[in-house]
Design brief:
1 helix, five-stranded mixed beta sheet, alpha+beta, 5 strands, DUF2188 domain-containing protein
């Protein structure tokens, strides 16, 4: 997991595996680097983007979206 969030006049990318933090001037720079790191990470990796209130505003890769015609709710017996 890589987390992009605002930090003291800039933006940070936290590498959740190691706790290491990288700092950037803009959110765009931080998100691009987080995506690059996630793509190069062995196994599954996700990028979460938080806003100034620390609310989740984006996730990459995006979680799967079920079609509106999905026949039953997840977790329901088939």
């Amino acid at each position: 997991m890589f987390e992009v969030s605002p930090f003291d006049g800039g933006w940070a990318v936290k590498l959740c595996d190691t706790g290491e933090v990288l700092f950037f001037e803009t959110g765009g720079q931080a998100e691009r680097e987080a995506r690059r790191l996630a793509a190069a990470h062995p196994g599954d990796a996700r990028v979460r983007v938080l806003d100034l209130r620390r609310a989740l505003v984006g996730e990459w890769p995006a979680p799967p979206v079920l079609p509106a015609s999905f026949p039953y709710a997840l977790g329901a017996p088939a």
